[in-house]
Amino acid sequence: MKRGFEIIVPCHFGLEAVLKKEIVDLGYDISRVEDGRVIFWGDEDAVCRANIFLRTAERVLICAGSFHAETFDELFEHTKAIRWEEWIPEDGRFWVAKASSVKSKLFSPSDIQRIMKKAMVERMKTAYGTSVFPETGSPYPLRVFLHKDQVTVGIDTTGESLHKRGYRTMVSKAPISETLAAALILLTPWQGDRILVDPFCGSGTFPIEAALMAAHVAPGVERPFLAEAWRNRIPETYWPEIREEAREMEDRSVETDIQGYDIDGEVVKVARANAERAGVEKLIHFQQRPLSALSHPKKYGFLITNPPYGERMEEKEHLPALYQELGERFRNLDSWSAYVITAYEDAERYIGRKADRNRKIYNGMIKTYFYQFIGPKPPARKPRLPEQD
After folding, report:
1. What is the CATH number assigned to the segment(s) 178-215+256-373?
2. For 23, 347, 351, 380, which has the most beta carbons within 10 A of its beta carbon?
3. What architecture is the 5-156 domain classified under in CATH?
4. Can you name the residues that pair with 30 across neighbouring β-strands?
5. CA–CA separation, 347 vs 352, rounded Å?
6. What per-residue confidence (pLDDT) applies to 119?
7. H or E element at residue 37
């Protein structure tokens, strides 16, 4: 596979290893892994595949350049040296959509955005032999990262964040994003033929993401991307061909045991509607049910859930009883595993068991913990003997 160029894929902090495995499974070579993003080698085809197939990525950026800059003069000259004409056509709309700076001498996002836009214009004036750019064509927004004075410049191919799959038009309070839910499921040993129950299902994100995995549905197959309009770089046939390839891999008739419960009946209606938009409503059983009714007759299942954090003061007093009941219900599930993401720091105390593993993860701006209570593995299945004539 030809290397092409570097592709930058941001993700949730702490979940870089999950995204790295996804990219490797797609068949691409990793360039490097940094906090909150994975960089790999690819080409135009890889841009399409990453957008359509990656479950845990936030967006897909083409690395236009990387350089060291401690002054605005250096920022201007290095930005101007990038061969923008190879990426952006004469009528393209281009701007620095976002600039972030960590431990760098240049720290003002608005100044970084203004200087870089000016440098791009100067470069393209020379390249196209004109001083006027109509910017009436396709969009080419930039995202710029400064870390210890090293500037990384990415052209956004995605548009709206990849967590917006298109199925979740209505959400409950304190929702978990689609990409984070997918990453947390991938951190568990759960497979599509195993039981999965979310007793605080809310908008249904955990069950829906699990059903999409079980049915081999690519998360971005039904949504649009900015780079679909980049006729100067990506052949028009790539997107429909890769979408058709993704659809051929789907199996929405697969048998599953995925369940989502919530005490709020209106929330359950929202979850069902979201599952229907995702095309996996037949793979999930949603039900209005309190935590006290959580049970299952089968062994070796998985609880994967995002219970209340108690962000409002009046809710905090109810948390000890809620997490205590969660622990009691879990103990009554024979040979099950439980995976709980929460910002409640006394969760282990009231669940009544120390987690086998614990991972700190930021859910938006909220510091949360992913507690992993690991149950026994099911016995190995006996191989089927060939039928005798």
Report:
1. 3.40.50.150
2. 23
3. 2-Layer Sandwich (3.30)
4. 40
5. 8
6. 98
7. strand 37-42
